[in-house]
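User: Fold this one for me? It's von Willebrand factor A domain-containing protein 5A-like.
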Amino acid sequence: MENCGLLSENNVPVPLKSISVQVLVQDHVATVSSTLQYVNEEERPLEALFVFPLPADAAVCHFSAKIGEQEIVAEVQDRETARDRYDDAVSSGQQAFLLEESSESPDVFRLSVGCLSAGQNAAVTIIYVTELAVQDDHSLRFCLPAVLNPRYTPAGSAAGIVSEISSGAVPYTLTLSVHVSSPKPISKLESSCTLDPLVFLHSDHTQATVNLSPGHMFDKDVELFVYYQDTHQPSAIVEAGVTTAPPGSLMRDTVVMISLYPEFPEEVMSSLASRGEFVFVIDRSGSMGDMMHHGKGAQMRIESAKDTLLLLLKSLPVGCYFNIYGFGSRFESFFPQSVEYNQDTVDKALKRVKEMKADMGGTEILQPLKHIYSQPCYPDHPRQLFVFTDGEVFNTKEVLDLVKSHAHSHRCFSFGIGEGASAALITGMAREGSGHAQFITDTDRMQPKVMQSLRFALQPAVLNISVDWTLPDDVTVDTLSPPINVLFQGQRTLIYAQLKGESSGGSEGTVTVKYSLKDQPVANQLHFCLKPTEKTQLSIHRLAARTLIRSLEQEERSGAADVEGIRSRMVELSVQAGVSSVHTAFIAVNKDSRQTVKGPLLQRRVPTYDLYETCCLMEACDDWDIETDCNDGAVLSLQADSEGEQRDAPELQKDSLLQLVSLQKASGCWDLDATLADVFGKTEDELTNQKPAQVDGSVWATLLALIWLYGCKIEQQVEWQFVAMKAASWIGSQKGEISIPDHIHSVSVHQETFQQISSVL
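Assistant: Here's what I get for von Willebrand factor A domain-containing protein 5A-like.
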């Protein structure tokens, strides 16, 4: 792996001084304009390379450079042609700028700044458009990545992504302003960073602005969460084309973006699947030993993953199959092949989980995936793959191609852990594997997001998906998005389509998504106006072009017959739409800047900020006093004495919810014993003395556990919902006179019996 971003031997400052970002959010789409301010402080001409992350699904659509009062706007060209032009310009003393997408991962871009004269300033502007992901709380997430972690390259591989490792605090600042506009009223806007107050521009709250508070040093990803009223309503954005574009081209015709939110019948959703093969793939590379965040009470990533595995294992349905893989530079599985879920296999797995460490070297996910896919599937047990990683691999596209080639036999749910997780890898695996992606950053808890994905995995499979269009005469449609192969309850599905021709009559169109769910036919429909939306600035066309380009890239990598034809189509589409692709690049040359170059150009590598490394430096310099202020969470106090030696820290207190979950049997019940009583803060005698004589001890213990969950941990219900469902099902299968309370299960209970149980706790 080639590393850049280290300062030169004589510690010369890097030329990037500031980044200014303007974000325009229009409903579900964001247009982002970033301006990078460079200054050459050397005494001779300078060439600089800045490698930086962008959202995986972004469509870069503008690149320009301003030197003094002169602005040079870049054009999209074939990649090799652009590189040749750049090299020729720099060698002849012309100022040149080259922006290109990494061939290995679409979320990494390289900006080459060539031949800046001594003392000269240059402002480089990059504009991209991106879809905003819908979160489980119905907010829309925008992320401005700050960290590009080194990507692991396996031994013997010639490929690699240029990465940065900063040797200290990043030497440039960030300013950010956001303008939000939507047909729906804006409820609020939240961020992981400090913001100035939100300012509404209209009384109906459909437009608002907000700024990042001054002094931000780009020390973590900037996450923004936009909340609209009625986010889950299906919608359509219709965008007119460009009259100067070639007839019949994507940029000439009207394009529509459809946002659908499938709603499944309630009777179907009430019965989650009890079958399946669940394979959990856990990153155990060295970086998983990093902290989840850098505030008080933070866990190591691997420890959070272990707690999550405990919850997952206890939540699986009886009768399913499961296995657990750990991977790094090598991989290992708990069992030679997936095993049936029972008390014995769960106990063996949990013992291995407790021993897991971040001790397996680098991050190579390709080989464990190949091994999993080589295992035969169990009939009537659909395979569900859960992948946890901090996402630092070099061969993203190769991994995605592998997942896609096995999409017929499994679903893939992926989880990006910590700052710097590759959005291209995490979202790509879920997209190609017909699953769902989640990101766990800053102070997010991993468990709620993972359990939401488990609920998706347990939803009935959606089959025979089709999309039908009803349009006026003389209007035809070309769907640009790949075929829909997965739908989840309430989760957004996007469809891009090109509308050809002009309607002489009707002004409305209809799109209908049909599918079958547990042998029931279901249809979700949206009526939309064909009149184009104003002021969308071709963002929908560019996102549609990006979607089509990504499909063509995958087709090219799959070994299609007409590779040259596909490549030519990709370049043509990229140039026409003005968006980036793996085969094109943005090139700008200032032809008026020719000058004699005296001596060789200096080369500088511009770093991005590496959060963990700086934290290590702080730990080396400071004495820490870390503790959490919670009733049942981890409490850790690390103090240093005057000689700088660390005292022995008390053992971490186990979270009481995880304690309770860990005691549940595979069948769903709990034993009535001292360890359970300890979770409730009681003695065993206090629990058993009030047990009705006719009630079995395990039934009594399980009832107590359910009452405690609903009474003391209701705010974490998403984490223990399947644990409780399994417990209620177990009680329902037992013969006895005490039933489950109404809010826990459908079986009724006498009020006095409920009060008797509750009084014990």
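One thing worth pointing out: Residues 539-557 form the longest helix (19 residues).
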